[in-house]
Design goal:
heterodimer; A: 777 residues; 7-stranded mixed beta sheet; disordered N terminus; B: 154 residues; alpha+beta; Ubiquitin-like (UB roll); DNA polymerase, domain 1; 2 domains; 5-stranded mixed beta sheet
């Protein structure tokens, strides 16, 4: 056997590598959409409805149009050729109101765009908005989804007086039998309140219409540049191949930029009308009023069980606050929620009925977790309530009902197939880390001293890696291109659109390992439809689990091609590729990646059945979703005087499959937990009875600050996913999904001596103080 | 109105509207991309810069108020291509994800360390309480400030 002289490169996958995107971000050199300045660019500002529901009795733009510096004003009557804001989800009987990009004769929510003013700078554009005269005929509005469908509420859309957007029914197993056999049934109404995603960068669009080519370039802070391009082209009546979408650096998304918004098409429309570039940057107030909100569930649960804790079945009535319109995925979020209602448990009987309720509010849609936090919150609360009802430890009831290790792949009550799992493992690890028995002893002592200490557990399951295409509205595959230059430098182009998740680093790690080359030789590009092949985008914890897998397969193809050139150059059939070169297994001679790649472009000679060039594009269709899981434990103590919930310790043990970069994974989990904690303790989008958003600014909406988030202790178990070759599951949303039920279970546990069985979120000190007061009264 | 500002060590004179906010002066007039706008109501801290050595939210100040004063932004923090220890620590500790709050967060952290070179976790959390981050849950930012403190103290 010939020996090789190749030095083995140290694998980078699995290493805590600091991110490659950071140098531009820590120096202020990154280009976010508001940093884009094009020659001759104008600025747009939008007049929005101040009312939840009103007729536009008169609209006079003359003062605005005459204002110095204003170049154009457009209203609803100008946009006749532009298609409506699309809803990508479909359900039988779904009612889809026509969502024009500017209001016609009526407005349906506070913030509804009515007119756009285009001016030489952003101050003058705002001045122009103030100079538009509108006569409003204010109508009654409804903001509460349960009231909206109660039969006597004002109609959000006059054509549908019942305010029902859709009914959706899902039933599996034999629910009536399950409830007939039940020894105990626990019922509870549980809400998952409306939340405001609050990416630190608001939305923003720069539209540039090249009049000579009749081609539009749209810079937008979007998680889905290719989908946006397809849909914007359709809305504006432009050929898709003359529409380019660029997602520049993005200041967070959390699902709120997984959409197609009126303003994106509106700026395209304006740019085409005025023949000059135009920029619109959303203010924070506009962001709160008009960018999608998340959650908005009222859930009525019933869970049937035996006295030994065996769960037999579940009934659920889910009322989803839709808002005034469907955005891209609005109706698909509650139906996804239903799919995850069984959580990690093996019961097979479920009946769920979803009612979508129109309200005079901004639409709900995908916000970090998108349906799964609501589901997990529901099942994890119900399991805890059941345990309390039958006097069982919350750990024991979970262990009793978990899907067993030998049952994978496991078909759930709602028809999903869980890929792999070891559900007891993270729970046992978490219990060990917190010293569960010790904590219970401490709690007993605390209770004796009159202190309110709680221990809350959630064992969450979640669905990631969206997803098999037949289960998604617009394709669930992902794409990757690997391009090796004649000099041997490697460019990776991903169809995913990371915006803070760090794939410029993790995808380079995967590439470095597969090709055996240094990180510095790899450049990762995303987010420009003129450069990158069609892709689906980044959402639903799919970036690495689908996009990374597409990259893996592209790398295998490019390696195979390199090897054919290597064999040709080495004049041998017996070669192997490793460590960034091809080696002849007989002679030990080597050729470098640059030599092979260079030979493929010079193409003086070609290997048999091999084309010139060194570029491979792979579109990968995943065979299934992935299903991460884990156990979170929150230890809380409640201040009897103020009702404040103090988080004494927070533990997260997550199983997200294999880990590419533990540093990045930790960051994703911390951020996820902070958003789950925000929902549990602080955040709520509040509309009053006139459908005015009361929490319309950061002053009124409690995004957690550094002092409001506890130290998060975290660990992992690793159960690789068999769905993709990387064995990864997805980490973006896990923290958010696991957190809120752990928190509520903990607070309810603390309040149990007072007879409290359930508390809805957010568990503000005021709410807890009222509970304490009424309990003590 | 004519104003003269020493911006990141260089003097610039501009004619600005009295109502122009300092953040818009920095971004639109001076062409900087580091200070960001996350709210325009002084709540998020993404626009944090130093004026005469004190961290301020540049959306809560008019450009004319900076006349004759010394303004330092994230762009002026690295000296001769060498990152400031706080920048380096943010990178090492993965104290940023989307990066939008980062320039303001770094400026606030720098100020915090100048006032308190060896802060506890609690003091760090209070010190950056005026700056919102939606990505990190703040934990890695706390780690970064601690790491920068020990490096700067060394």
């Amino acid at each position: 056997m010939a020996t090789t002289t190749i030095t083995k490169t140290e694998p980078l996958v699995g290493k805590r590598i600091r991110r490659r995107e950071d140098p531009r971000l820590i120096t202020g050199a990154a280009t976010y959409v508001d940093d884009i300045k094009l020659p001759g660019m104008y600025h747009a500002a939008i007049l929005r409805s101040p009312h939840g529901a009103a007729r536009i009795a008169a609209l006079d733009i003359s003062r605005a149009a005459a204002h110095p510096g204003v170049v154009a004003v457009f209203t609803g009557k100008d946009i006749t050729g532009v298609g409506p804001v699309p809803c990508g989800a479909s359900l039988p009987g779904l009612r889809v109101p026509v969502h024009t990009i500017l209001a016609q004769d009526r407005v349906y929510f506070v913030g509804h765009p009515v007119a756009v003013v285009v001016a030489s700078d952003r101050y003058i554009a705002r001045d122009g908005v103030d100079l538009i005269d509108v006569e409003w005929d204010v109508l009654p509005a409804v903001s509460d989804p349960e009231k909206a469908i109660a039969g006597d509420a004002p109609a959000v859309h006059p054509e549908w007086p019942d305010n029902i957007a859709f009914h959706h029914h899902q039933e599996n197993g034999n629910v009536d039998d399950a409830f007939a056999q039940a020894e105990v049934v626990v019922k509870q109404r549980i809400t998952s309140q409306r939340l405001i995603p609050t990416a630190m960068e608001t939305r923003g669009v720069v539209a540039d219409f090249q009049t000579g080519d009749k081609a539009l370039t749209l810079y937008s802070s979007t998680q889905v540049p290719h989908l946006l391009r397809t849909l914007i082209a359709l809305m504006l009546g432009l050929p898709e191949n003359k529409t380019r979408v660029v997602a520049p650096e993005m200041g967070g998304g959390f699902g709120s930029k997984l959409n197609v918004y009126a303003e994106e098409a509106l700026m395209g429309f304006v740019a085409m009308k005025i023949g000059k570039p135009v920029k619109w940057i959303e203010s924070r107030r506009e962001n709160y009023l008009t960018t999608i909100h998340g959650r908005g569930h009222v859930d009525y649960f019933e869970i049937a069980a035996k006295r030994d804790g065996t769960i037999l079945g579940m009934k659920l009535k889910l009322i989803q606050d839709i808002g005034a319109y469907h955005q891209l995925l609005t109706p698909a979020i509650p139906t996804l929620s239903v799919l995850m209602m069984p959580g990690l448990y093996k019961f097979q009987n479920i009946r769920a009925h979803v009612v979508g309720a129109f309200t005079n509010c901004v639409p709900t849609d995908a916000y970090r977790g998108a349906g799964r936090p609501e589901a997990t919150h529901g099942i994890e609360r119900m399991v805890d309530m059941l345990a309390a009802e039958i006097g069982m430890d919350p750990v024991e009831i979970r262990l009793k009902n978990f899907v067993a290790n030998e049952q994978f792949p496991f078909s759930t009550a709602t028809g999903l197939v869980y890929d792999s799992g070891n559900y007891a493992a993270p729970l046992m690890k978490a219990l060990d880390l917190v010293d569960y028995q010790g904590l219970r002893a401490q709690q007993k002592k605390a209770r004796e001293e009159g202190r309110l200490m709680g221990i809350g557990i959630s064992t969450y399951g979640e669905i990631c890696a969206f997803g098999p295409s037949p289960a998604t509205p617009a394709g669930g595959w992902e794409s990757a291109t690997v391009k090796i230059d004649p000099t041997g430098k490697v460019t990776v182009m991903t169809g995913a659109c990371p915006h803070g998740q760090g794939e410029e680093t993790t995808f380079a790690q995967i590439t470095a390992d597969e090709l055996g080359i240094p990180l510095d030789d790899i450049h990762v590009i995303r987010g420009d439809t003129a450069i990158v092949q069609y892709g689906i985008g980044t959402f639903g914890s799919r970036g690495t689990a689908v996009g990374g897998a597409a990259l893996y397969f592209a790398l295998q193809e490019v390696k195979a091609k390199l090897k054919r050139y290597g064999a040709m150059l080495l004049e041998s059939d017996d070669v192997s590729y490793q460590g960034g070169q091809c080696v002849c297994n007989k002679t030990g001679r080597t050729v470098s990646l640059a030599e092979m790649s260079g030979a493929s472009y010079r193409a003086m000679k070609l290997p048999p059945n091999t084309s010139p060039g060194m570029q491979v594009t792979n579109f990968w269709e995943p065979p299934n979703f992935t299903f991460p899981f884990g156990a979170h434990i929150a230890v809380t103590e409640i201040d009897r005087e103020t009702g404040a919930v103090q988080v004494k310790r927070y533990f997260a043990v997550d199983d997200i499959g294999n880990i590419i970069n533990p540093l990045i994974v930790d960051g994703q989990l911390h951020g996820g937990v902070a958003q789950g904690l925000g929902q549990a303790l602080y955040e709520q989008a509040v509309y009053d009875e006139n459908a005015q958003l009361v929490t319309g600014e950061l002053m009124d909406y409690a995004v957690p600050k550094a002092t409001m988030v506890p130290w998060i202790e975290s660990d992992h178990t690793v159960t690789p996913s068999p769905v993709n070759p990387l064995g990864v599951k997805g980490v973006g949303e896990a923290g958010t999904i696991g957190c809120s039920p752990a928190m509520v279970n903990s607070v309810v546990d603390a309040l149990r001596p007072l007879g409290v069985k359930h508390v809805d979120m957010p568990m503000t000190s005021e709410k807890i103080w009222r509970i304490l007061n009424s309990a003590q009264a | 109105m004519k104003i003269t500002v020493t911006l990141n060590g260089k003097t610039r004179t501009s004619d600005v509207e009295p109502r122009l906010l300092l953040i818009h002066y920095l971004r639109e007039e001076a062409g900087l991309t580091g200070p960001h706008i996350g709210c325009e109501t002084s709540l998020c801290g993404a626009c944090t810069v130093e004026v005469d050595g004190k961290a301020v939210k540049s959306c809560a100040m008019f450009a004319v108020q900076a006349d004759g004063r010394n303004v330092l932004t994230i762009e002026g923090l690295a000296a001769n291509g060498t990152l400031h220890p706080v920048q380096e620590a943010f990178w090492n500790e993965h104290a940023l994800q989307c990066g939008f709050c980062t320039p303001g967060m770094i400026m606030a952290s720098k100020q915090l360390l100048e006032r308190n070179p060896n802060p506890t976790e609690d003091e760090i959390r209070h010190g950056i309480d005026g700056n919102l981050c939606r990505c990190t849950g703040y934990q890695h930012i706390v780690n970064a400030v601690k790491a920068a403190a020990s490096k700067m103290g060394a």
